[in-house]
Model the fold of this input.
Amino acid sequence: MQQPAPTTSEPLTFLCLASYEKGYAFLEQAKRQGCRVFLLASFSLQHTAKWPEGLDEIFYMPDKEHEWNLRDMLLAVSHLCRTRQIDRIVPLDDFDLEKASYLREHLRLPGLGETATRYFRDKLAMRMRAAEQGIPVPEFTPIFNYERITRYVDTVPPPWLLKPRLMAGAIGIKKFHHRQEVWDRIHSIGDEQSFFVLERFVPGDIFHVDSIWFRGEMVYAVASAYGTPPLDVTHSGGIFTTKILERGSKDGDALKELNRRVLSAFCLTDGVSHTEFIRAHEDGTFYFLETSARVGGAHISDLIQAATGINMWAEWAKVELAAASNSSYTPPEPDDAYAGLLVSLARQEWPDTSSFHEPELVWRMSKRHHVGFIVKSPDYKRVGELLNAYSERVRREYHASAPARERVRE
Done:
């Protein structure tokens, strides 16, 4: 959806949506660039969130577990527009993408509309679009027609994954080895079953590519490899790790090119993305898993900044301003280092991690019942060694697990 850039001398106005507390660097960078920044956040955050100082106005939407009534939101923002000109709407969380697209369509503002947003939120839309463009994806089927589902489970070998179409990450995903288990689960969710997609489970190594896009071109990308697959971490209580891939590596180059193909097919023009791929153990093929039009979560943005010096949140704000003002954008030159990230639940309420004191340790988490670290080194192998050593220590001294979160729908 395109609209001419404003021609007045007034500062550009961003309305940022935040169901959850995140996006500080985006908000701060937008203010540094001279923008007016309005924030619409969940009411449940009113007394707990510590938003950056200097925001022009903060508004709160009534919410139930961070969910908003879309019509109430539309009426509230439309009322706001009576006295305030809004130039861009920016969703700061995965769950805010539909909200932003709904508002853009109604107010006829630039950015991803409702159909385009599906490619970045709906796992079925992602797979269908990728398959249409010849991008490898695991065999899948929508949960619409029983005859088609029967044909799928009779011809595609197990195990299978039943995934909520509109949830983030591994939330709500179930793994099945027998067809009756699939049918039992489908029947158990009743009228909600059309909100799921069934997919072949592909054993393999999981990777992610985090990228910046401007005017339809991928202007920066960094590829990383997870340790234990996130699905296993979520469902089996493992330790989450990821590290930047070696520059110039065959895998890294292949992943960035595949990322370019995916997001070009999905028509991402201006913004950032976190995209995940799997390299199958059986034949080494890279398959597309899912993508997003936002900064990667789970402290991945901190990992990237540690290794490259590039803050993805801040660069996103620069891209939004450049697109809105019809000016140029060039990403900063990245630093020449590597980094690795570890995060785990902890048995202790406030774990003491002072015994971790290697010179490569550049960040440690301070969060109730969690431990987390980022290590940085110019030596790629050293990062891997430290992640392995830290994982073993955390497993022995701190690690705890909790049941996976499950929400049928948002």
Q: What stands out?
A: The CA atoms of residues 32 and 322 lie 14 Å apart. Confidence is low (pLDDT under 50) at residues 1-7. The domain at 13-111 is CATH 3.40.50.20 (Rossmann fold). The chain has three domains: 13-111, 139-200, 204-397.
